[in-house]
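Table S2 (continued). Query chain:
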Amino acid sequence: MQNKHIFVTGGAGFIGSHLTERLCADGADVTVVDNCSNGQAEWVPDDAAFFERDLTERDALDNILTEEFDLVFHLAASKAVNTDRPREQFEANTQMTYNVLETMDKVGVPELAYTSTSTVYGEAPRPTPEDFAPLEPISIYGASKLADEGLCSTYAHSHDLTVRNFRFANIVGSRLRGAVVPDFLEKLEENPDSLTILGDGLQEKSYMHIEDCIDAMLYVLNNASGPMVTFNLGTRTTTSVNRIADIVSDELGIDPDYEYTGGDRGWTGDVPKMRLSIEKLNAIGWTPEYGSDAAVRVATRELIDDM
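Corresponding output:
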C-alpha cells in the first residue's frame, strides 16, 4: 500500500480506524469519510485526511473522491442487526453503496474493497463456503448487505470496476462497540455479581481479531484476481456466548451468576450458529493467527484497557 492514494468510508469506526492506522503505517496516503454515527473522529490518525459527511446524500463525495485515488475501502454502514428502523437502515446502506459506486465510476477510481457480512447467508450449513446458495438473510441488515453485493457485482461486470468482497465473521478488538464482549463488560462493571445473557447462551459463532481481519483483507488485495471475488473472513473455530461470558468474567477476576432471557437466539434476526469456511482464503496462502476463543480473550483485554 506504500505511496497509494486510498479512500476509506467509515474510517472513524471500529474496523475502519484500525484499517486507516495500518494503511498510514504502511506508507499510504489515506482520506477518511465518516458521519461518526458508529465511530469517533479522534480514532482517525493524524496522518489521514478526514471529512465528516453523510454518504446517503448524493453529492457527499463531490470534490473529495477524485481520480487521484487508487482504491476505495467501503466500510460505512448502518450496522445494527436488530434495528427498530428497518426501512431506514436498508435505504441508508443501499444509498451509501450506490453513491460510492456511482462516484467511483464517474471519476474513474478502478478498485473497491467492500465489507459485507456473514449474515447474507442466513441460517446456512456450517462451515459455510462462499459459493453456498441460496443466500437467504433473516435480518434487514443482512438483506441490505446482500443488495449492496448485487450493486458491486453490477459495477464490476458492467463498469470495469475491480471488486474484492469480504464477508466478515464477528470481528473483535479495541474500540469495539455494540457487541457481546463490550456489552458484557459494561454490564459487569455496573453489577459484578450477575450477568444477563440474551437467549440461552448456547449461540455459537466465529470471532476474528481485528488485526487478523486487516491482515486478511490486505493479503487478498495483493493475491486475488478477477472482476469480483468474494472471500469469507473468519476462523475455523467457534465460541459460545456462555464461553464469552466465562472469558470476560475470568479476565475481570470475578464469578457472576448468569441469568438468561430465554430462546435459542438473542433477538429477531440473530443467527444463533455461524461458522464460515475459510478454505478459499487458506488456498491462496493465508490463515488467521488467533482462533475464536483466543480472539475473544485478546479483545477482552484490549477493551478492558479502553475502559
